[in-house]
């Protein structure tokens, strides 16, 4: 059996409204946990990333939702968001390529602005209703954050960032992260916003949070294609 990774992990997706809600709960209410977990991006790979993943024996389990589930999610997310004092704005995704915003996260991370990038992209998508798969949107966010516009907007074309994306997809596969938000603590796994309290109890019951993380941390922050109810984005 592989050795247990003692660092709690948070698989987040910039696409998913449930991941956005979990992000807000984590950063607004539990900044000490936000500062200690590993932040791992999760997204549906495009055709190129799928080929890269399959070439090394990886897998990406995902099933498209039904229309009934999609309509339920519209209602459910608005209800949960309003309970949290938020008003969602529904984006329209036209031919989305999720590598565009998620590989740009790695570029922002390299510049020391990963946390700010996550915060701003979530605002842009879920509070402003804009298309985060539009390279012009990513360039605008980069400009706001003082980051290289071309690098972030064209991250999906960067070979090194594609390789990092492949490693991230393999990490999802290894942890069995089939949807988001997805939390891992030791051998325990928690899927969905409704499992977040159980994740917190597991972390607090394990002797406290670790002092160091192996992936760059996001830290405490201020406060189309919708995702699966309570989890999978």
Which CATH-level-2 architecture? 3-Layer(aba) Sandwich
Q: Low-confidence runs (pLDDT<50, min 5 residues)?
A: 210-233
**What's the CATH superfamily, by name?**
Glutaredoxin
CATH fold name: Glutaredoxin
**Which range does the strand content fall in?**
5-15%
- Report the major sheet: 4 strands, mixed
From the N-terminal CA to the C-terminal CA, the straight-line distance is: 30 Å
**Based on DSSP secondary structure assignment, what is the total number of beta strands?**
4
Helix content: 40-55%
Mean residue pLDDT: 87
Number of domains: 1
Strands of the widest sheet, in order across it, are: 2-1-3-4
Number of contiguous helices: 10
CATH class annotation: Alpha Beta
Which word captures the global form?
A: globular
**Rg over CA atoms:** 17 Å
Assembly state here?
A: single chain
- The computed structural class is alpha+beta
Q: What order do the SSEs take from the amino end to the carboxyl end, as H and E?
A: EHHEHHHHHHHEEH
Family: Belongs to the GST superfamily. NadH family.
EC number: 5.99.1.4
Protein name: 2-hydroxychromene-2-carboxylate isomerase
GO molecular function: isomerase activity
């Amino acid at each position: 059996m592989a050795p247990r990774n003692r660092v709690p992990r948070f698989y987040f997706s910039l696409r998913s409204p449930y991941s956005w809600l979990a992000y807000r709960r984590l950063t607004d209410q539990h900044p000490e946990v936000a500062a200690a977990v590993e932040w791992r991006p999760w997204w549906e790979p495009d055709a190129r990333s799928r080929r890269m993943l399959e070439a090394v024996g990886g897998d990406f389990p995902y099933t498209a939702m039904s229309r009934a589930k999609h309509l339920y999610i519209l209602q459910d997310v608005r209800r949960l968001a309003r309970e949290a004092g938020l008003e969602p704005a529904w984006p329209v995704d036209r031919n989305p390529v999720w590598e565009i915003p998620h590989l740009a996260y790695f570029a922002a991370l390299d510049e020391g602005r990963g946390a700010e990038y996550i915060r701003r992209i979530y605002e842009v998508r879920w509070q402003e209703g804009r298309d985060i798969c539009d390279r012009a949107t990513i360039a605008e966010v980069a400009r706001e954050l003082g980051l290289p516009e071309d690098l972030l907007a064209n991250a999906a074309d960067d070979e090194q960032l594609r390789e990092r994306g492949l490693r991230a997809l393999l990490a999802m596969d290894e942890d069995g992260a089939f949807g988001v938000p997805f939390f891992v603590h030791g051998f325990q796994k928690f899927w969905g916003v409704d499992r977040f309290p159980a994740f917190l109890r597991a972390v607090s019951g394990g002797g406290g949070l670790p002092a160091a993380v192996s992936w760059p941390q996001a830290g405490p922050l201020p406060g189309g294609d919708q995702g699966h109810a309570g989890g999978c984005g």
